[in-house]
Amino acid sequence: MVPEIAMIAPYKRMADMAAEINGNLAEPIGVETALLSEAVGVARRFQQNGVQVLISRGGTAMAIRKAPGIILPVVEISVTGYDIVRAVGKAREIDRRMAVIGFENMIMGARTLSEVLGVRITEHLLSHEEECEAAVRKAAADGAGVIIGGVIAMRWAKRMGVAGILIDSGEEGIRQAINEARRVLWVKKQENTRSRQFRLILDYVSDGVVATDEKGKITVLNAIAEKIIGLPAGEAIGRHISEMAPGLGISRTPKAMRPAIADLREINGTPVSLNRVPILANDSYGGTVVTFQEISKIQSLERKVRNKLHNRGLVAKFTFEDLVGISKAMAGTVEKARRFARADSTILIVGETGTGKELLAQSIHNASNRRDGPFVAVNCAALPENLLESELFGYVSGAFTGARKEGKAGLFELGHGGTILLDEIAGMSTRLQERLLRVLQEKEVMRLGDDRVIPVDVRVIAATNKELEVLMAEGRFQQDLYYRLDVLKLVVPPLRERREDIPLLAAHFARQFCRQLGVEEKAFSRGALNALSARPWHGNVRELQNAVEKLVVLCDGNEIGYDDVGRILDEWNGTASPAAGIAGDSLLRDSIRRAEYEAIKRVLRQVGGNKTEAARVLGIDRATLWRKLKEE
Predict the structure, then answer these.
(1) Residues 182, 91: Cα–Cα separation, whole Å
(2) What's the alpha-carbon Rg for the chain, to the nearest Å?
(3) HEC profile of 486-552
(4) Is 384 helix (H, G, I), strand (E, B) or coil?
(5) 3-state SS, one letter per residue, for 130-187
């Protein structure tokens, strides 16, 4: 395991002393012996291996600090006054004329001991190890009988035949340096943790962040900013911001710039919203912080917020897989709707009441690229004009009597990023048609009582059971609006044009209602399905759905037969409105009877007139068949 603290001792005795201290440490330090420039290579190796703090002494410590590429903190083993006194005391026994040679961090103040100890001391300060030889020669030439200093000074003194005393560090100095190194290591870890936290915050905020110093040089560049500006932080840090990111609008004299909030700019072709704020401390300029965010991300976040806060429940539940039918008419309609879903154009759905126009609109939405956005539906014929206007466009506080104090977002705002279905569009007044036309043209709305516009991105699907061309000719529907809506037209066939779908729809609705009621599933006999297929269904699929619900609720047993259809549905229709008179009931009964008769005749032709076989195909007994034929 690599130690986090390591000592580079300039001489062996110090290394041995550190090794001895190591034996009593809970977390031993690394120890190696190297001097001055040799120590720099050792320091680089320690750094590469993961050492966090270095310990050394004198010129060796200075050499490590100054070496390029070494970023580790260096704790110095201090040369104390006691160390100098001990060395001078030893030297006095050799000669009272002495010279102290070494780097400033070792020998400063040694000359002050001259009078106290009764010796002559000269100081020779070194700034580099190559100066040591000349310093020793000069000291000897000046009459020094003994040299006091570090390891390198001792080497030159020995070569020149001059006595030398090494300034030795005691055990207390080494222990003190180890304790200081531990404190530095703890502080460094804390700083690293805060730095990582700061970096994570910067890299995971949704804004790009760039900071400069007082000279305009980049000091911070987070990941989002790197991506938008297209420049790695390693290349940008330390460079002037006007050179590396001119799109941020910071000049060569940033001190004179004013703050900017929500400034719309374009950086490398990306539209952004930019904030630029100077850093001021005690009225002194300290740099600039710039934050910016892609407009597209702001819009995406806005959609999410709108969905979360306002659009709960505004979802499309149905998809094309929920549509039931095998008829060519319906298959063609669904295929066209699927193709419409791939576009983003306005759609006009035309069909009789009850044909399933909203179900198709929801399916289109769920198959479109807006499927993750809201689906908003409003019946334009069900609300009074003033209420419909406030629902569609929203209002601000005080817009009218009874308005919410906080105002209200309109359905176009709530549908931002999604789809809005304007059902029964023919029921909208001409005044509201004009406002709707403006929304389609400008893609923006203005709340009631407000003077500002709100951009909206919403796909409009309009639905109607009326002939808009006729209403347009009568002046009750805006011509411009009609052509805005009629970009893609979808005509939904009535149920009478897709009778082969009736058995499938009836069985589908029966399963649904049985599940809702918690009863055993009920099936239709062939005769019952033929009877249902023969009926006119003026209310289309919605009327069939209601009829099946009635049959499931009122029919006993697990099979709904031919007679059940006539008995329950005719009774239903006949008693629905007694005040309507016998004439209406009679017309309805006659219509149903004729439809049943036509169905029986059609089956008889298919089986060559065989009444027994016809009764079997229809799922009724032969007597009922004879009775139905005689009624006509």
Answers:
(1) 35
(2) 47
(3) CCEEEECCCHHHCHHHHHHHHHHHHHHHHHHHCCCCCEECHHHHHHHHHCCCCCHHHHHHHHHHHHH
(4) coil
(5) HHHHHHHHHHHHCCCCEEEECHHHHHHHHHCCCEEEECCCCHHHHHHHHHHHHHHHHH
| CA angle at 76 for the pair 74 and 81, rounded to the nearest 5° | 170
Cα–Cα distance, 267 to 277 (Å, whole number): 18
Q: Is the pLDDT of residue 104 over 60?
A: yes
Q: Compute the distance between CA of residue 7 and CA of residue 57 in angstroms, rounded to an integer.
A: 9
- 351 — phi, psi (to 5°)? 180, 160
Indicate the class that CATH gives domain 5-78+173-184. alpha beta
DSSP state of 447: -
User: Residues 12-32: what's their mean pLDDT?
Assistant: 88
**Ordered DSSP codes for 1-45:** ---SEEEEESSHHHHHHHHHHHTT-SSPPEEEE--THHHHHHHHH
Distance, CA of 101 to CA of 92 (rounded, Å) = 16
CATH number of 498-631: 1.10.8.60
- Do 81-168 and 205-296 agree at the fold level? no
| CATH number, span 205-296 | 3.30.450.20
Give pLDDT tens digits for 183-237.
999 998 888 888 777 777 777 777 888 888 888 888 888 888 888 778 787 777 8
The length of the chain in residues reads: 632
Amino acid identity of 216?
A: G
The pLDDT value given to residue 483: 93
Non-local CB neighbours of 522 within 8 Å, separated by 6+ positions: 510, 514, 551, 552, 555, 557, 558, 559, 560
3-state SS string for 213-261: CCCCEEEEECHHHHHHHCCCHHHHCCCEHHHHCHHHCCCCCHHHCCCEE
Q: Which two tokens stand for residue 72?
A: 């580790």
Contact 378, 421 (CB under 8 A): yes
Query: Does residue 32 contact residue 41 with C-beta atoms inside 8 Å?
Result: no
CA dihedral sign of residues 426, 429, 434, 435: negative
| Helical axes 526-534 vs 562-575, angle rounded to 10° | 40
